[in-house]
């Protein structure tokens, strides 16, 4: 005997509920204090280029995602412990990090540069910056670079980017070293009037200009992420997100 319409509807609803109960959810970590890549939006939710890229990848992979903010130096430990499944936080690939995590293909590229009060230094050679206080996020490639190349400049290591900017504006730091695009967002704000890029973008073996997504080593998720990255590049989703935040391509 065939089930009636009501029974059939209930059966279909039950199947949907069972499928929903087993829907894959990816837990994604971002830094959360690194505008315009990740920051708290006006409604209190996370926003930014990294956040939208993460959401686009989840949509492409047909999975649900939960994006959460984790301070920079806790990102890799949170991945290793299983607290999150992947990191989308403008992370550069380094030999040290590759011992702990696996990296996707790159999803944007930039350079590192100093910012401070206009005219504070004639150039950015180690001698010219001797004695100047450098505010940099702890655990970053910029911090490693400054520690090696600028031994005569006191390093003020901070937990997140806004703290570095606050120290600069308060006169507690002389320069900030960070990603060019991140600094551009800061320098365009009214509070940064009188501040500018100091010197050209820096070059060095320890500075990488490409950002990657991190997953646990030997995780099958890596292949899926790379395929999804390629797909959103080809279908125009990446370009749409890029245009939302930048007037030029950062790929």
TrEMBL record:
Keywords: Signal. The keyword Signal applies. SUPFAM superfamilies: Periplasmic binding protein-like II. The keyword Cell membrane does not apply. It comes from the Bacteria. Residues 25-249 form the Solute-binding protein family 3/N-terminal domain. Pfam families: SBP_bac_3. It is found in: Cell envelope. Residues 1-23 form the signal peptide. GO terms for cellular component: cell envelope. Belongs to the bacterial solute-binding protein 3 family. This is Polar amino acid transport system substrate-binding protein.
